[in-house]
Fold this protein.
Amino acid sequence: MTIGTPALPQEFLSRLASLLHPKQYDAVFTALSSDRPTTFRVNRLKTTPEVLVHALETQGLAVSLVPWSSNAFILTQGTLRALSETPQYRNGELYVQSLSSMLPPLILNPQPGERVLDIAAAPGSKTTQMATLMHNRGEIVANDTSQTRIYRLKANMALQGATIAHVSRDDGRSIWKRYPEYFDKVLVDIPCSMEGRFNAQDPKTYQDWSVKKVKDLSHLQRWMLRSAVSATKPGGSIVYSTCTMSPEENEDVIDWILEKEKGNVIMEDVLLAGASFDPAVIVWGAKQFDTSIEKSVRIYPTNLMEGFYIAKLKKIRSSVPKTF
């Protein structure tokens, strides 16, 4: 096992080595030192995969299909710059997005006519994806706190034609008070330490990382997830996702919510035909997590995929008092 490089933080690498067996560590380390190809999804609100692919091919670009989604493609010939100069890109007929980032909306699987909350929505990748999955029928509340990021969120929603989405600027930890048990489904794609996106060749991707930051984020994540539970109707679903590998931000957060909302929420399997996942962590240091957390999944970085964690919860009982 070859732990270490002066680039990535040594403490991060040591923690990663504790998560993985040696061969897996080496594969992940290699992935964190490499660039991934450009990937994108088709915006079915404006076109079809067949029409889009043909149009791109006539401009000298080539793509390959992703096995778990008929809307997701890998750019195999051409550059991101060339793709971004096409009329299809400028018209919002496609959206450049990492493959791992496309998974949480597919796991949540919002349906036409449903009410959906995207609790940390900017820049709108998953909001616009969910509008497509819902055929622009229903309601999406796209929430974020940063005015700068909201500008980009609104621009992406407009370009992609996501007319069922409207923006809110609430603190995610308290948005449930505005929407108590209102939503059928909630996406909690949470602010995180972004370890799954680290690139050893780009110090900007990891220069702010620290164990303290991981623990601070874990506290925020817990209360945003609990707010999401309170904003979900009994019988509704919540998908929690991060692009990090720290158990404190992943399984530990889910373990906490299962205890805090005991009897109100249960774990559900994360399933998607054609997709392969890595197992969740059940033991981290001295902590033993709830065994039902085995239903959640990890995606460790590869030459195609960013690192991600995805958990799905079902709300089985009301958790909000009639007066609060």
Residues 99-315 form a domain with the Rossmann fold fold (CATH 3.40.50.150). The longest strand covers residues 232-242. The chain has a mean pLDDT of 96. The longest helix spans residues 211-231.
